[in-house]
Write a structure and sequence with these properties.
Layout lengths: L1 H25 L24 E5 L3 H6 L1 H10 L4 E6 L2 H11 L6 E5 L5 H11 L3 E5 L5 H10 L3 E6 L3 H9 L2 H8 L3 E4 L2 H9 L5 E3 L11 H14 L3 E8 L4 H11 L4 E7 L5 H10 L4 E3 L12 E3 L6 H7 L2 E4 L12 H5 L4 E3 L7 H9 L3 E3 L3 H12 L2 H17 L3 H15 L12
Parallel strand pairs: 1-2, 1-4, 2-3, 4-5, 5-6, 6-7, 8-9, 8-12, 9-11, 10-11, 12-13, 13-14
Helix pairs in contact: 3-18, 5-6, 10-13, 11-16
């Protein structure tokens, strides 16, 4: 109780900074200033009960939850589903993926972790169960669910060694929060063990739901369309790049890669599209943007993927991909989408957020690891010149993706007993601390 009170005091002290941070982020994404009331638990929408609540922080978690969301809707046809997010891009992704399911599926922001804001959220929607995607743990939210008797599960859960050390530094605060989760479906044995070490009690290894996302047929068709635009040129994809990575990437590409190689560059965050376009020009490279839909000219060196929700199409159009987030100490991105469409992958040295899946992809021959971006581009050029090896890596990636499917069903099995027995209490029925 004392530690959580101190934690809450920090939230109150930081409140002015939270507002400033929203204003700062709104310079690039004005959407951060929309739906501000939801950030403190004030909602205009209502949902027909019973409600299943699924929290997906941003874009990656929202896309990852798609198979589970559909499975929950199919298994519980009398329920509605509430999606919560923390970022505008997560919310926009939900509208893109699930907009046609409204009003049965609706999206709002999860409030900041003030006790009274959490209470407003739970009182307004009265969910039968809360499901957290991956690793989003808020002590006051956990306590609010305990007080209302709302089962709270974490699924597709992952916890890197670095993040585990961060949680461990908070001592009993994190241990109590992990211990109060009703169930955890971990991606790997290592993830599950780290959570158990932090106090989690009900841990099951269910696998990675992202493997259950089949490449959408429209995205594969779009990828073929991209490929036709590129003509006979060889295509190298730089996927999900992050700040600090594009500069060295572009410098090495300009120096190492001949003009017949087209670089398709897709930044991870949409607010950086214009910034990255400037970096490309600064590197002396000609650039076209995907958003213009113009034919790709033969003298264009870089095609900037300034679009959202088309990563499968970019992978399908490429012959080799280097994956961003792994060239600086950012933890990397997962290679699952690339493997699912048979695109050979090269990752950098920093993949601690996806260490197991990257290691597995390398072990089965679907991916390679490079020490730095220059070595990564040299590897990519070797693969572009070696069709037989590319084909072998492509087939290995397809087998790898196929062999790890089934996590959605195992996760649904984990959640079903909680939904069957859940009877959340109204505010007047809450237990004392």
């Amino acid at each position: 109780m004392i530690l959580r009170s101190l934690y809450t005091a920090v939230w109150y002290a930081a409140a002015p900074l939270i507002g400033l941070r929203l204003l700062w982020r709104a310079r690039r994404q004005p959407e951060y200033l929309q739906h501000l009331g939801e950030r403190v638990g004030v909602y205009r929408i209502s949902m027909r009960e019973p409600v299943i609540w699924l929290h997906a922080v941003s874009v990656g978690e929202t896309r990852a939850c798609a198979p589970l969301l559909q499975a929950l809707l199919d298994a519980h046809p009398d329920h509605t589903l509430l999606l919560t997010h923390m970022t505008p891009t997560g919310r926009a992704t939900a509208a893109e993926l699930f907009g046609e399911l409204a009003p049965r599926v609706q999206s709002v922001y999860l409030p900041y972790d003030f006790p009274w804001a959490v209470a407003r959220f739970l009182d307004h929607f009265h969910p039968r169960i809360g499901i957290l995607m991956e690793t989003e743990l808020w002590p006051n939210l956990v306590e609010g669910c305990r007080q209302t008797g709302t089962p709270l599960a974490m699924v597709n859960a992952r916890l890197s060694a670095r993040s585990a050390r961060g949680y461990a530094r908070t001592g009993a605060l994190a241990r109590k929060a992990f211990a109060r989760l009703s169930a955890i479906g971990a991606q790997t044995e290592a993830d599950g063990q780290r959570m158990s070490d932090l106090g989690a009690r009900y841990v099951t290894v269910t696998g990675n739901i992202k493997f259950d996302i089949a490449p959408p047929a429209p995205m594969l068709a779009l990828g073929a369309s991209f490929r036709n635009r590129f003509g006979p040129r060889r295509v190298l994809l730089a996927a999900s790049t992050r700040e600090g990575e594009e500069g060295p990437l572009l410098e090495a590409f300009a120096r190492l890669c001949p003009p017949e190689v087209l670089l398709v560059l897709v930044p991870r965050h949409p607010q950086r599209f214009d910034e990255v376009a400037k970096l490309i020009r600064r590197a002396g490279l000609t650039v076209q943007k995907r958003s213009t839909n113009d034919p790709v000219m033969v003298d264009t060196r870089v095609w900037l993927g300034d679009s959202m929700g088309e990563m499968y199409a970019y992978y399908a159009a490429a012959e080799v991909a280097v994956i961003g987030g792994s060239w600086e100490k950012l933890g990397g991105q997962n290679p699952i989408e690339a493997s699912a469409v048979g695109c050979p992958v090269i990752v950098g040295p920093h993949t601690f957020n996806f260490s197991v899946v990257c290691t597995q992809a390398i072990e089965v021959g679907a991916a390679l690891r490079a020490a730095n971006i220059e070595e990564g581009l040299r590897m990519a050029l070797e693969l572009l010149d070696n069709p037989a090896r590319r084909k072998a890596m492509s087939e290995a990636g397809s087998r790898f993706a196929q062999s790890h499917r089934g996590a959605t069903g195992r996760t649904l099995d984990l959640l079903t007993p909680l939904l069957r027995t859940a009877q959340p209490r109204r505010p007047s029925q809450r237990d004392p601390e």
